[in-house]
Task: inverse folding
């Protein structure tokens, strides 16, 4: 299996990567706290592990420039946007974080798909 070279660490790429990393990290922390506070620990356990997985993918293979990681990371904004349509009380937070994640992915896109 060939690994693509690391993406060019432009300021645009770094900013997008940091946006993604912070968003996934804060949502992991948010859901981990909700496990302890609210009465639905199973639901929030799933969300916490979903966000933790996204954080790990963003931190390791995404940073190394693996294209599958960029594509797989789109699950993060999609997964955050879907619950917003079920519960309007959390809609603004989840849609806001999903928007930040989408922005981070769009900022990093040129580094993954530049012509060689």
Result:
């Amino acid at each position: 299996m060939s690994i693509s070279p690391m993406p060019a660490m432009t300021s645009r790429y770094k900013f997008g990567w940091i946006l993604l990393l912070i968003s996934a990290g804060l949502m992991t922390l948010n859901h981990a706290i909700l496990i302890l506070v609210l009465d639905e620990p199973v639901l929030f356990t799933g969300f916490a592990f979903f966000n933790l997985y996204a954080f790990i993918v963003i931190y390791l293979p995404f940073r190394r420039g693996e294209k599958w990681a960029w594509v797989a990371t789109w699950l993060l904004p999609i997964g955050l946007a879907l619950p917003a349509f079920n519960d309007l009380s959390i809609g603004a937070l989840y849609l806001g974080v999903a928007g930040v994640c989408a922005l981070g992915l769009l900022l990093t896109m040129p580094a993954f798909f530049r012509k060689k």
